Amino acid sequence: MLGYNIPDLGGRLVLTRSTIVGIFNGTYTWWNDTIFTATNPGLNMPQKEIIVIARADKSGTTSLFTEALGAFSPNWKQQYGMFSKGYDSVNNVPYHWDPTVINYYGQQNRGVSGLILSFRNSIGYLSVADIYEADINAATIVNKAGRLIDANSSTVQSAMDYFSDRNTNLTFSLADAGSESAYPIAGFTHIIIYKTKMKNCQSSKELIRYLYWAMTDKDQRITCDRKGMSPLSTSMVQRIKSVVLTHVTCHGANVWAMVESDIAAENKEVQQWILPVSITIPIVSLCILALCSFIIKQRLHIQKMIDNDEWFIPIEDILFYFDGRDRSSMNSRIADRPSIISNASVRDIQDDDILIRQIIQWPGKYRGSQIGIRLIEVTELNQLTRQTKHQLLLMKNRISHINVVRMFGLTEVDDKKYLIGDYCSKGRMTNVLRDDKFNLSNDFKCTLAGDVANGMHFLHSNDIIHGFLRSDVCLIDARWQVKICDWEYGTLLSSQAPNISPILVMRKKSDKDLGTHDIAFKNFWVSPEILRSDFKLNPTKESDVYSFAIILQEIFTREEPYAEHADSLTPTEVIRAITLNTLRPEHSEETPVNIRQLMEICWNDHAISRPSFEQVLKLLKRANPLKRTVVDSMMSSMEEYIAHLEERIEEKNAELKVSNNKLETTLSGLMPEFIAKVISKGKSVRPMMFPAIAVVILDISHSSVNFENLNPRDVIAFINELCFEIDLLARKYSVYTAPVSGCSLALVHGLESSKIKPDEMCISMVNLCFDILSHEEIGRLTKSMENKFVFRLGAHVGPAITGLSGTTSPSYVVFGDCIDVSQALARTAPVTCLHVHVSENVWCAIKRSKRFEASTAGELSVKGRIFVTYTITRIQERVKYATSEDSGVGGEPHSQALTESYEPNKTCDPSVNMIEQESGSNAVAQNGILNDKNTVHQSQDELEKHCRDMVVVQMISDSIKHPEAFRDKLRSRARSKHHHNYHKRHSSLQKHRSHDLNNGSDTLESITSLQSEIKPMDTSNFGVPVSKQFVPVKRKRKRKFFLNNIYPEN
After folding, report:
1. CB contact at 8 A, 97 and 86
2. 216 or 944, which is more confident?
3. How far is Cα 182 from Cα 178, in angstroms, rounded to an integer?
4. What is the pLDDT of residue 940?
5. Which stretches are tagged as biased composition: Polar residues (predicted)?
6. Which of 630, 560, 561, 624 is nearest to 594 (CA)?
């Protein structure tokens, strides 16, 4: 058939066979040609050029049509002939058509019909089925006999009978039949079968029976006619039976004879069904009667429900409450997105307006269910008809879907009725789309779109057209499922007032308090055909599909539709461009190609070309094959967010560990190291009672010193260096050093454990005293001050209580008489070298070791108690002790230092024993020769290097713990010429030093650079930070985190 699109023609187009050929060979190019006006008197033939459309692909439709053109015109047959190919897309040229005549080519019949509908004043050829499906006007043709003929079963069968009488074969053409009632453009669809080579006789019988049944069965012939095709005429059926079906053989046997035999056998078996049927009929009749009774009962029940107004919910039965989550959701971080309504930011809208628009449902509870009252007043629903009440009951009981807001009924407030449905606590979908705190992936967006399409597909499958679909009516419930609301109004209003468009009713109500631009903005989701009709057309399923396309664009851009035109067009101008220029929203670059294609076909300007929601769901499934739900997508985003948080926690834990190490290092200078570790871990320090601790008081005597003649800087530098050296020695014995009132220093042993024996503590503390008195660096410091200060030592052992005192500046304190007794011993000690003043308790504890000699010093009264005191000396061999000069800080040359030695106390701490044993094994005489060559397995250089390396680590550790003393020592040594010469003689130790001494002078810049080079390290091995030049440190690259999460504010 020939389909055409000529607006305002005023009747049906009539074409002769010659005019058809003239249209497709370019003879006639204008509709107002005299050839057309002559055959179409009274029609309004436009003065427009003819747009000719043909099939682009290879098709049987093209073959039948060109065969008919060849039958109409010998010139056509000679010039073009019959062909089936249309357009060569590779070379961009048609195969046979005249390129100057054919304007457009469509893929398949659906493409041709779409082009005809799209272009006015166009014409093309289609099958009868496609003409009817697309609702395209078909031309009436003047046949060979001069009669006006339309395409139908009877006219095509007339052509069959005409050619059947004139042909002996079954492959003849039906084009241009000569009978009066024959349609001139027709053709057969053939089935090819084996006639003599059938091998499976059972399949052969079934095939022959099927073919004969398809040609003769009445229902099948009716179905064929409904599908736009013509069944074979009776004469053609008999001819096919006699020529083909009765001559088919299988292994030499006639298949038709076998078919007739089977039919006869089946007819005999038919008689056996009489008894079962005679029994079944009464049973079936009873079932039908019961079913009818049930239907009648149901109808009566429905009528009773209508009379009782069971669709009505009294307002008193609803327990209302305020859900602050709706309001708080608007306070989240919504980006400053452009809005085409006001051409401003969303934040510029007044707070009251936001509140009114946000409350789309007022929450409440009804019979255990959370419900929401839709705050839309529709006066047309105040007086309901019986038909509308019946519709309400049907929707209440039958419409239930996870993506559709379920309707519970209607309630009445102040004589006005409001709809009650499921409560969606998450609010509008647009709130989620506009809120930047949600990181929406493409899978998440596809899931949102899939929920909307799924809900609309359910409504359309129940013959419910929404009519008002836009993003504002897509709500999200507590389970993050998208639900469609306001679907009830269109059906209810159509039932209440069939002659009034529901869109006009809702527009009249919703536009009451809106401005011109706001009204135009609401029309962005309305399909163009409804806009062009000024809302006189009722909404259709296709118009809902168009609205869904706009929502789809919103989901993937997360902006209002047409927001890209916010700076250039008003909403009213946008509506005008939609209707006149087919304006559509722009895609974002992040939108997948499949989604863009889906949008394009869904917002097609021609409603017939839009897909159904069933097809939309298939396309969305192809775009999102994982089929994730909204909750799945949110959980995936949450997992990514948690992974980022875990990485941040690991980073913060590492920083906390470094901070704890720094805190522990700082606290260890203020209190015992084990107490500092406890505090740095956040634990409390409980007071402890020690039955015995050993205390040594170092008193710095200066009775003959005139302080007015001293340089304060030199005095403080002397005290700092002295404390530094004493700290080094105290660490060797695990002794806690603390200042005491006046120029005294307390050394306390036994605080780490109350299980240390007093004998062991006293021996260690006495050894420490002699180490202090005989230390060459301390002696050098005393000489540097011209012996103006002398040291006196007093030692005592006794019980004590320890703990932290103070709240603002807590400090570690030791309570007990042992402090006072030791102070008294120190102040009364003789000012002599290598003597220590001890109490009787100490002497009793150490005399069994046979390492010390004692002489009675007299009695001492402390707080009313009398103590017998002794002065003791050490009687052991001499041993060298490393000085701070080995660390590159200062001191006498290593080869010149000799002090008294003693046998290491084996009951002391293992680490101390190790250091003492190493010091003892490395002892040397003044001339630098080893004492015992038989016990030494290393050379003198190796021993000295090992000793220096060990002491360097110890020196640098203690220098970091006492930075002020360390800096003062540096300045003092830098001013010393002796230190300058020593630095020159020992240049081989430069690799162990933490900084260079340039020309014997340390500037403030060099000291500052030294501090910057000192880096805290893990103190689990030896408890000190070390210099970069001594231990190479690998820098760890700091990872950068880009947190694309759901809650970036956290």
Report:
1. yes
2. 216
3. 7
4. 45
5. 896-905
6. 624
Indicate whether 910 pLDDT > 50: no
| 848 found inside a domain | yes
- Between 388 and 511, where is the model more confident? 388
Task: State the burial class of residue 1003 (Cβ atoms within 10 Å of its Cβ: 0-12, 13-18, 19+).
Answer: exposed
For the segment 154-168, what is each residue's pLDDT rounded down to a tens digit? 898 898 888 888 888
Three-state SS at 173: coil
Give residues with Cβ within 8 angstroms of 125, minimum separation 6: 1, 2, 3, 54, 55, 61, 62, 65, 112, 185
- Residue 550 counted as domain residue: yes
Q: Where among 142, 172, 207 does a domain terminate?
A: 142
Helices (H), 199-322: 201-216, 218-226, 234-243, 255-270, 274-307
Residues in the chain: 1050
Q: Which residues of 216-252 are buried (b: 16+ CB within 10 A; e: fewer)?
A: eeeeebeebeeebebbbbeebbebbbeebbeebbbee
The string of pLDDT tens digits covering residues 364-378 is 888 888 888 887 767
pLDDT digits 0-9 by tens, 851-895: 888 888 888 888 888 888 988 888 754 443 434 333 333 333 333
Query: What is the CATH number for 104?
Result: 3.40.190.10
Contacting residues for 54 by C-beta, under 8 A, at least 6 apart: 24, 62, 86, 87, 94, 97, 102, 104, 105, 106, 112, 124, 125
Per the structure block, which two tokens stand in for 617?
């769901």
CATH of the domain at 518: 1.10.510.10
What's the domain range around 615? Answer: 315-323+358-628
Answer yes or no: do 622 and 704 share one domain.
Answer: no
| Residue from 70, 221, 108 nearest 156 by CA | 221
pLDDT at 663 over 90: no
Residue finishing a domain among 577, 593, 628: 628
- 538 by Cβ neighbours in 10 Å (0-12 / 13-18 / 19+) ranks as middle
The CA distances from residue 460 to 455, 489, 545, 1015, in Å, are: 9, 15, 11, 72
Contact between 559 and 435 under an 8 Å Cβ cutoff? The reply is no
Locate all alpha helices (DSSP H) within 336-381, ordered by sequence: 351-358
Mean residue pLDDT across the chain: 75
The pLDDT tens digits of the residues spanning 255-288 come to 899 988 888 887 776 566 677 778 888 899 999 9
pLDDT above 80 (res 1034): no
The two tokens of residue 636 are: 């995936």
DSSP-H helix ranges across 308-381 = 324-329, 351-358
**Residue 860, phi then psi, degrees to nearest 5:** -135, 130
Phi, psi (deg, nearest 5) at residue 1001: -130, 125
Alpha-carbon distance 1025 to 143, whole Å?
A: 109
β-pair type (102-106, 51-55):
parallel
More confident residue, 1018 or 642: 642
Same domain, 113 and 227: no
Query: Both 123 and 238 in a single domain?
Result: no
Mean pLDDT of 1036-1040: 39
Those residues whose C-beta lies under 8 Å from the C-beta of residue 481, and which sit 6 or more positions away, are 402, 403, 451, 629, 630, 631
The DSSP line for 42-73 is TS---S-B-EEEEE-S--HHHHHHHHHHHHH-
pLDDT value for 83: 92
In angstroms, the CA 410 to CA 417 distance is 6
Residues 234 and 368 in one domain: no
Residue pair 183/159 in contact by the 8 Å Cβ criterion: yes
Domain match, 114 and 238 both? no
Token pair recorded at residue 243: 């020529």
The pTM of the full predicted model, rounded to 2 decimals, is: 0.40
Does residue 840 come out as left (phi exceeding 0), alpha (psi in the -120 to 50 range) or beta? alpha
CATH number of 730's domain: 3.30.70.1230
> Rounded mean pLDDT of 449-453?
91
Q: Within a domain: residue 18?
A: yes
